Amino acid sequence: MFGTRKRRRIAELEARVERFVEQLAEAREDAAAGMGASKRTCQRNVHLSNQLDTVRAQLTAQTRRADQLQARLDDAVGINTPDVDSGALWQQRRTDKPKPGPIGAPQ
Fold first, then answer.
1. In sequence order, what DSSP letters do the residues of 60-104 get, joined into one string?
2. Average pLDDT over residues 82-89
3. What residue segments make up the domains of the chain, in order of their start?
4. Is 82 exposed, middle or buried (0-12, 13-18, 19+ CB in 10 A)?
5. 103/37: higher pLDDT
6. How far apart are CA 12 and CA 5, in angstroms?
7. Percent of the chain at pLDDT above 90?
8. What are the phi and psi torsion angles at 80 (to 5°)?
């Protein structure tokens, strides 16, 4: 009887070891698949980061160009002359300028 119990216990332990080996193999497969997905995600993030850098550089260049074109337009129509600047100040302190009143009140 003593030998039967030991053999049964050994068989149970061997079955348990086999389950652990199977679980380990499955875990390794899952880890490998997860690592592949993680690698693809990292590569995609690097690609998107590079695209973002390119778009930011393009935005900076376009903003600079728009500012230059606006300055050229201002020069062409004479908006940046001292007379226009003094006229803006006059507009702010002119005496016939209506005073803001309550909302909805006639002016």
1. HHHHHHHHHHHHHHHHHHTTTSHHHHHHHHHHHH-TTSPPP-STT
2. 73
3. 2-80
4. exposed
5. 37
6. 10
7. 43
8. -95, 30
What is the distance between the terminal CA atoms of the chain, rounded to a whole angstrom? Answer: 112
**pLDDT, tens digit, 9 for 90 and up, residues 23-44:** 999 999 888 888 888 888 899 9
Rounded Cα distance between 50 and 66, Å, is: 24
In the chain, how many H helices and how many E strands?
2, 0
Q: Is 91 within 8 Å of 100 (Cβ atoms)?
A: no
Specify whether the CB–CB gap between 31 and 25 falls below 8 A.
Answer: no
Give me the half-sphere count of Cα atoms (radius 13 Å) on the Cβ side of residue 71.
6
**Which residue is associated with the tokens 């606006």?**
70
Q: 101 and 107 in contact (C-beta within 8 Å)?
A: yes
Unique residue bearing structure tokens 């209506």: 98
Dihedral sign, CA of 10, 16, 19, 20? negative
